[in-house]
Amino acid sequence: MSVNLPPPTHRKRVVPQGELEAASTLKLGADQNTHTLSLSEARLVINKVLENKRRGGKKYDEPENLTKTLDYLEVFSRFKDEENIKAVERLLNSHTELEMFERSQLGSLCCDNAEEAKSLIPSLQNKITDNELQELLDELTKLRNFVE
């Protein structure tokens, strides 16, 4: 007895053009030099845009996926205060030896030590010494908002 299956309901996965990889060597293709945001920066940008929309006078209903994104960012953003977010961005951008992707990852992950940072972001391995990275991580920790 043969069973007739309905046609698949999923879309075929698009194969990426070129090799994209965030490993010991960053291969981000066309996005290699794209400005990236940490989770805290993304939270700040989205909240500013929404604040402007709400002030516009028209009723604005937030889409469900935006609400869920904001909820996620609220939980996982390590820096809440706008002043601290800007200070973190300045600090990370002063490390021009690092790619923008690596800087935003450091700003989002807030690793405790250089070993953890290099294991989570393998491309840091030969770009920055453990001592320099630890100093950077210590400065980031000083800017964290630990108040819930």
UniProtKB/TrEMBL annotation:
Keyword Nucleus carried by entry: yes
Signal peptide span: none
Domain RNA polymerase Rpb4/RPC9 core: 29-147
Gene Ontology CC annotation, any one: nucleus
Entry keyword annotation includes Cytoplasm: no
One GO biological process term: DNA-templated transcription initiation
Location in or out of the cell: Nucleus
Domain of life: Eukaryota
Molecular-function GO term, any one: nucleotide binding
Alphabetized UniProt keyword annotations: Nucleus
Family designation: Belongs to the eukaryotic RPB4 RNA polymerase subunit family.
Family matches, as PANTHER family: DNA-DIRECTED RNA POLYMERASE II
Protein name, as recorded: RNA polymerase Rpb4/RPC9 core domain-containing protein
Source organism (scientific name): Byssochlamys spectabilis
